[in-house]
Each structure stands twice: as C-alpha cells, then as structure tokens.
What we know:
Elements: E1 7-22, E2 30-47, E3 52-69, H1 77-113, H2 123-142
Antiparallel strand pairs: 1-2, 2-3
Amino acid sequence: MGENGGTLKVGSWDSIHFVIVDLERQHEGKARYRLTSNVFLKMISSNPSSYGDLEIAGNVSRSKEETYTIDPRNFGDDFHIGNIGRLIEANETEIRTEMDSIYINKTKQIMNTGRLKEEYMTRDEKLNFQAELAAAVSGLKKL
Length: 143
C-alpha cells in the first residue's frame, strides 16, 4: 500500500556502477577509488480515488571519489571489494534520497497543486480558472 490508499503495481530499480581503482599512490599506503553510478527507477501506482494510474520513471547519475589507507595485512581482493561495496552503498543511498525528493515528492506536489479544490479557491478564482481552462480546451479543438 502506498500513501492515501494507493498501491504499487509495478516498480523497478536498476543500477550500473563503474569503478576505477588507482594504485599509483600505493607506495604511500593509499588507494583511490572513483565510482560512477547510474540508477534507473520506474514505478506505476494506482489510486482510483485521487489520480488513477500514475507512472514515474527517471534516472540519476552520480560520481564519488574516496581514498583509503591500505592495510598491508589485508591488501588483496577482500580489501578492494569491501571498499567498493561501501562506496556503492553510500552512493546509492544518496541517489535514493535524491530520487525520493525529486521524482516522487515533486510529482506529488505537482499532482496536488493541479487539483481544483473548493476549499483552496475563492468563487472568483474558481470562475477565472474555469474560464482559462475552457479557453485552452477550445483553442486545442481549433488545431
């Protein structure tokens, strides 16, 4: 169940991560990781009482760079996998937060602002809005 009784019909989160490991500073005991993450989101939800079916889709790309101190006792695949894993998790968390604020909350805000609710409009504002809407619709019919 989503907000206001809505249900998620379809949803997907796909991500691609590209990592470059730079060991040029290995003699200083440092390893630098450059990560580029691309996340693709698609959701279709349904809430017949307010807006019907709603589809949101988009993508976000983010880069992150970190330098880690090399542990000479544990320098190998496990060292790199652990660092890369932490970097990916941190990047995806930032992207998830950004997608929530940009795609989901902004869409809700637009949907809620576009509704004609009597409690938010005076009689004159409502009549002006209806007149603008009628003019726009009649203009489309002429095309």
